[in-house]
Amino acid sequence: MRRQAVPGSFSLMKKMNTSFILNTIREKGPISRAEVAKITGLTPATVTNITAELIKYHLILEAERGESSGGRKPVMLRINTNGYYVIGVYIGSTYIDIVVSNFNSDNIYSDKIRIDTRIAGEIVLKKAAEKIKDWMDNNKDKKILGAGIGVHGLVQSKEGISLYAPNLGWEKVPVKEIFQKHLGVPVFVDNDVRTMTLGESWFGLAKNVSNFIFLYVGYGIGGSIVIDNQLYRGTTEGAGEIGHTTIEIDGPRCSCGNYGCLQAMASETAIIERFKEVLSKGEKSIIRDWVGDNVDSITPEMIFDAALKGDRTALSVVKEKASYLGVGIANLINTFNPSMVIVNGNIAVLGKTVMDCIQEEVRRRSMKYLQNSTKITFSHLGEDATLKGAVALVLSETFENPDLVYSSHKV
Length: 411
Ligand SMILES: [Zn+2]
Description:
Blueprint: H1 10-28, E1 31-32, H2 33-40, H3 44-56, E2 60-65, E3 75-79, E4 85-91, E5 95-101, E6 107-114, H4 121-138, E7 144-151, E8 154-156, E9 161-165, E10 170-173, H5 175-183, E11 187-191, H6 192-203, E12 212-217, E13 221-227, E14 230-231, H7 262-266, H8 268-280, H9 286-291, H10 300-308, H11 312-336, E15 340-344, H12 352-365, H13 368-371, E16 375-378, H14 385-400, H15 403-408
Parallel strand pairs: 4-7, 7-11, 12-15, 15-16
Antiparallel strand pairs: 1-3, 2-3, 4-5, 5-6, 8-9, 9-10, 12-13, 13-14
Bound molecules: zinc ion.
Zinc ion binds next to loops.
């Protein structure tokens, strides 16, 4: 987060300076007060006052002494990793995953609840919230900052409502309200793709990267865009529907109703469809031995596995689809000039094979002077991105508004 110390009303100025200092310590720590003053442009007295308060509230601590250029070694400051804990929840298509983590996203508790879609969303969530509350009651010495919740489907993040979760059949479920009522801590809610993006930004490859684009390739393709360290949400929170940009005007019909969307050309669903088509034309594949005539049981994992084993049919389908992904990424590079594009999804198991296809299209189709400034990479977080992102939902809010801690935790 690169902010500037700004003048203004005292409380606003103090809040912004506190956030600025806290983020500087997070990014550069262990760091001396003198260095913090140099980076932030704040006076040594202001840094001393604000860091004293941050220490008092257990957000940072004095660590080992650093190197000295002569004279006494300076006291170094760093984030107090275990000063507080954060609840992270991911509401997926079949399970609710729960963790309690420290500031490093190291888990001290984790749990999993199967979602029964025959039961109303409100009741399922109440059960999950009660489980977390039990843990909190048994671990009263652990100070909880808040809960971050990533939800699959369409989410109204401000009110924390799951507007529509297609795989669960949930509509207008007040996620934030339910958890806040049971847990009694601040709750922050967002959709799964934006949550994963935040996970990349705090704990993944996009750490300290101001402009990047995240793409999740699963049965659909989701995306989100970070500009100047901020998630770009768009006018009605709809930004990032990269999966529904048209790649092939005569392409197959997409679930959104359009034809030839990136999702219809390069998602796991597209890979399965294309593979079945090729198979029906008589192409040979080891997957035939695995499923016999039961082609409907073919999964994306089978196709990736076969491709890894050198199955030529599987490999050619995956490569073809990866090229379409490359076309989509080339368009993103030309539109946003990001310094990084992170791709997450099972397709990453094919590593270089897929990345080479993507890179080839990017070289062919994006502007020469733009393509070299964008690093394209697979996520290192993989499936952990959602829960880490849920934890980051709370952390990003806290580091932006440290006064949330001051007002809710007595010292
Ligand atoms: Zn579409």
